[in-house]
Request: fold
Amino acid sequence: MPCLVYTTAEEISRDIGIKIKENYKSLKSFGDVNKLSDDKVEIFEINTSIDSDYLNDKLYEEFVFVSRHVSSKGVLAFTVHPLGRISENNYDLGVADPIGMLKMLQSINESCKFENVSVTYEATHHGPIISKRSFFTEFGGPINIEDFGVYTRALSFAIVNSFDRKAEYENIALGISGTHYPKKFTELAIAGKYAFSHILPKYNLTNINIINSAIIHSDPKPDIVIIEKKALNSIQKKMVTDVLNGIGMESVMV
Reply:
């Protein structure tokens, strides 16, 4: 059973959480006002930042975090992404949930159709880093969003529906992208071609060993690596090719 986590410390996360609870008429409290459950999902309400590693101690197989999306360019978007803290010299990856993320992305694409609001994967970034399958689903962009209730209501509906839908895909894929927002990967996933696990943009390949770590930190593990054309320079292409050949992993350029 998945555990959905939202925080009252941030207004968009709080509003999504409240609306999600409205969709579940059968939710029951277990004597803890911060925990509700039915036969499909358990919902945790916390009053601190979601970026907290204490969730490793919770007995769930999958975590779905709902949060505000922040864009430096202020572009409105619904996003889905795996977790990982990555810097130039270090990386610490969470366990990607390719099937859960795909169901969420496909559900959002069906339910959240707004003009000038994109639906997209994001590359792997930020925590919490936990030992269970986990991912974020977010809405936002600009610092200030007027009348965001119509968007959070649509997203809450998509989240609820995602738990019931069947994942449609041909392969589980590790993605290597050119940018933080891999448009081509999103299109392929929505079309049912690939369910992406970790997505590594080219600027996060300074330590090439991250590829092996990304393959390991996924449940289920990818059976193919999808690389965006023009994402890598010649040096990066050789490094990536050498790593993939060494582990016998197939790759495809898209």
Notes: The two ends are 34 Å apart (CA to CA). The first helix runs from residue 11 to 23.
